[in-house]
Amino acid sequence: MNMTERRGVSIVLPEFASTQRQAIDELLVLQEAVLPEPAALKTTDLIVGVKSAAVSFVDFIMMTGQYQHMASPPYVPGLEFSGEVLWVGSDVKALTLGDRVMSDFMTVGPRSKGDYQQSGAWSSFAVAPESGLRRVPDDFDYDEAASFQANCETAFFAMVKRANVQRGERVLITGASGASGVAMVQIGKVLGAEVIVTGRSQRKLDAVLEAGADHAIVLSEPESGDLVAALREETRRITDKKGVDVVIDTVGGEVGYAAMRTLKFEGRMVIVGWASNVSASGGRDTFEPDRLPTNIMQMKCLQVLGSPMVIYSMANPDWRTHQISQVLAWASEGLLRPHVSHAYPVAEYRTAARAKFSGDVVGSCVLNF
Known about the structure:
- This protein is an alpha/beta fold.
- It contains twelve helices and 15 strands.
- The strands form three sheets. Strands 3, 4, 5, 6, 7, 14 and 15 form a seven-stranded mixed beta sheet that branches. The protein has a six-stranded parallel beta sheet with strand order 10-9-8-11-12-13, with helices on both faces. Strands 1-2 form a two-stranded antiparallel ribbon.
- The longest helix has 16 residues, at 317-332.
């Protein structure tokens, strides 16, 4: 087929939703997409035929206007894609036709800023500058490549830059069955830590144990206050009453509070996210901030650290260069590999979004084009 005759599809969000459910069930639309016209592109641009695109919880937050920055509707959602180079601008140096590539979410797509913010991953075709693409690790498939960079960078920043995890330390990770959580488990093992994970589902935690976690604690739905006691009791059993050195919290709320109580004296708590505190309705005023107990921080001499990977990386590009280099090196050594539990053809995009939103997914969920 001639390139000018190629057709595909894009998933478009026409306007911000009042709820995440509304975005998924009603607003997202599947439209025909045509191959971008090369004559209208920059000489440093490439056209990628997308093979796989990540479905991320951040996508849903963006759809209701709750994220710190996002594209203006109508736009194509999707933070990361992987695929095959279809066209190369005359000034592109390192990539060529047919190369397998994955996108840099900070350069291309709705989480980026600048000329490529509208090039979301949920489309058959994407335009990206050469600086916004990287080669796919040799033994990765397209689904793994589309799930790699944002999740592994988030995990690396939290575990290495913020927590400074050391060999032999005990690390407790809340919400560890998510894509970044699985990456944190793998990085924890690379660093020589003993990794404890928490979650609501035994099925999902079993998969995290297979990914390398040493212990899993299933959190039921106890009466108010019981969660703290239950998590402390199980953690004390696992650690011989010593507590953990580090907590990596992706959940917030009651779970984050309970996890803080498991820390030993001079422990470190790294806050990565607030999954339990972001309302499914729209607008930034729906966010319910945590109220962490300063008395516990004081009496235990704790360090409580934020982990804003994207913000820090934008302000410190040299650090990000190191960060990317290290996660790619670990991937090439087989030490870091995304876990993809759900993959759907693009026509089933609502089913894919519902699976991710409802928490059925372990690790990553992707759309295939």
